[in-house]
């Protein structure tokens, strides 16, 4: 699918029939399927349908069952918000009293769907005609067309004055630049434009890359880092006067939100905790906590300390439950030495090793090859890191497996 005519053909009865036939298509059989289908259908339409079938299968990870009904572009699959994350943001906007919203740089409409399902009426804007066609088709396919208006336009020329809120998701990928863009001013539109547009709205949310430098963040906004299933997915810059109740925006705040449970930690501006000796328990903070620079807040929760001033591992002498870090019972703290580690694991009949690293030059898979683990059923978690500046290896197991 590479033009509007071909996309329109997919929406026609013949295209719909092809898509239905390819619903459970096995990509390994694509050549056979293409040869068979081209006997009865135009080759461009068959290619478009096969391409759409591939994209739908890839999109299941983000959109779940909806992916089988939706229409995608390659960029749409790559850049769309995961449905769980979009739903979280939409619920927060709804809790803030938002009832109408301008979704700028809407792409294929993933965020617009979540917003509409939260009861928000959406103006979805994008300058890419193909993305807009997909967004309209998706709104229809998901039964949300009454709440979503799609407009093909330059977002910088759209008047958002009549809306309760603005959501901006600038493009962060570029073919000309060779893929992902890391400079916020190279976004399309630039982050500076998005910030100014946000400041004009009663409430606004800007989706940005989670690796954005903190010094690039506006001081009059709250920034929320979101992880889903332990993987950091994005950061959102929130604008709006501080409000009470659910969804409250705290200007200048830094927040980490962990999905699917929805636990959310707002930073208190604490200084880094002091380092100290490794205790009985090691805590691995969630990636969103680390990105939001809230390791100190978790340390205060658990009564913990850093194992090294430059490493985001915490340690404590007792187990304290927290949703913001995974706890491990530590059995050994040793200087890094491959032969000693190999001998120790053999002695303990360890056959399964989970190897984690932070602040170590050692590659886990290379170490795994050197360890040559046997067939024992016992497992061990190995942390390759630094303790007080020295290369070290910590052995243990998750708290859930503790005796």
Structure description:
By secondary structure, the chain is α/β, with parallel strands linked by helices. The protein is 31% helix and 26% strand. It has 13 helices and 18 strands. The protein has a nine-stranded mixed β-sheet with strand order 3-2-1-4-7-9-8-10-11, sandwiched between helices. A seven-stranded mixed β-sheet has the order 13-14-12-15-18-17-16. It has a two-stranded antiparallel ribbon with strand order 5-6. Strand 8 and strand 9 (231-239) form a beta hairpin. Helix 1 (4-11) packs parallel to helix 8 (129-141) and helix 6 crosses helix 7. The longest helix is centred in the N-terminal third of the chain and has 21 residues, at 43-63. It is globular and about 65 Å long. The termini are far apart.
* Portion in helices: 25-40%
Q: CA-to-CA gap between the ends?
A: 56 Å
Overall form: globular
Flag low-confidence runs.
Answer: none
Name the average pLDDT: 92
Q: Which range does the strand content fall in?
A: 25-35%
| Structure annotation, total helices | 13
What is the subunit organization of this protein? single chain
Spatial order of the strands in the main sheet? Answer: 3-2-1-4-7-9-8-10-11
Radius of gyration: 25 Å
Main sheet summary: 9 strands, mixed
The count of DSSP E runs of length 2 or more, i.e. the number of strands, is: 18
Briefly note the structural class of the backbone.
alpha/beta
